[in-house]
Write a structure and sequence with these properties.
Layout (H helix, E strand, L loop, with lengths): L2 H21 L12 E2 L2 E9 L6 E10 L1 E3 L14 E3 H21 L7 E3 L6 E3 L3 E7 L58 E2 L21 E2 L12 H11 L3 H5 L10 E4 L6 H19 L10 E4 L18 E2 L2 E6 L6 E5 L2 E2 L18 H14 L7 H4 L2 H4 L4 H5 L3 H13 L23
Parallel strand pairs: 1-13, 8-11, 11-12
Antiparallel strand pairs: 2-3, 2-8, 3-14, 4-5, 6-7, 9-10, 14-15, 15-16
Helix pairs in contact: 2-6, 3-5
Length: about 450
Amino acid sequence: MNASTGSKSLADQVARLCYSHFDNLPKKGKPLQGREWTIVAAFVQRTAKKVNSNLSLKVVSMGTGSKCVGQSKLSHDGDLLNDSHAEILARRGFLRYLYHHMEMAASGKESDIFVVDPKTRKFTQKEEISFLFFSSHTPCGDASIIVKEPMKTESGCTEEVLQPTNGSISHRDEEPPLKLPRLEIQDVHRTGAKCVEGGPQDLKHPGIDHHIVGALRTKPGRGDQTLSMSCSDKLAKWNILGIQGSLLMNFLSKPVYVSHIIIGKCHFSQSVMERALITRFESAVNQIQNTKFMQHKPEISQSQLNFRFGKQIDDENCQVQPCPSSIIWCACPVKQLEVAVEGRKQGVTKKTQNQSSCHLDICKKNLFKKFLFLLSKFQVDDLPMHLKERRTDIQTMTYNQVKRLCTDYVQMWEKVRINILPTWTTKPTALTEFTVSLAANS
């Protein structure tokens, strides 16, 4: 089996596993067949078995959805999901999964994915464990700006499409023979994500020059514009800084990266995906990366299996509507499945939305609680040094203050912001100044 065949085989295997997992979830939160569509994304754990060289695959987190909250509706209490795109929800479920395994290891139980470094007291990912990322659809933003397939004209000719050049998509400007009709205007698939203010902007010309490529983008929202970056941009960031974020990085010796990114059957371009997630930032990253944070270059491939609730890829005028709800699932012993609508747990009312029992387990506030709970599971002498010194203070710190405890991560993120992602949106600091109490942890 050659590498290409193996990649295709793995892509279909992962897609089939994820679609089957989705089908086995309860009906609540799923799209209405024939009337609604959604996107499904998942993190898949791959275990290499040393005995017989076989691979074991299992879904460890999953998310569905395509909605986002506008900036005027953001919560100052960390109890609302700003971004409910499937990719982001799957990642948040994956954070819960990592917390669960860290809690096991900290309690002296064996974890499937982590070992403790005896010198640093930090967690290290086991060599035989790797993680794959799957999405039924190309990520919104730069990865979705794909040149459409050439269309035949009356003469039977097709228009030749060239690869992006110098940061923009172009096509060959040639006149057809005089006796033949002009070729139809070449076009690109559109993304709803908008270029960030202060950076390069879309030309919005007809056809192929509607979008520019390589620009940072924010997701569209219902009503006002969002502050959430496109999934293409977030995946690119995760390839540099890891999936785990700043809180979990306090306990890790190295970032957690994905080894493969697999996309389901949809509009897809290998070169565009590589540009959006890796190469558009590659030269700049090379100037600032270090031994801990280095741009990871996952293998990218596509499955040819359809998602039965996916948006019709051959009919852009399809009247099927996006599903308003989102499903979040993770392989944890409690609260495996949750359903969200407009960033909150389905069924929550204005009267109950401030009750801790009504908050989604993947919201900022509850993930912050999981960090403090994990901290409490350690004996003082077993904590990483920088946490041991601040252990008492941390309990009263704000979310924003705790996010800055891992100086390695913070310094690298600041370098990335300045040198690579200067127009990345900044949310008001007031949105991260909340505190939590472990006594309120449910």
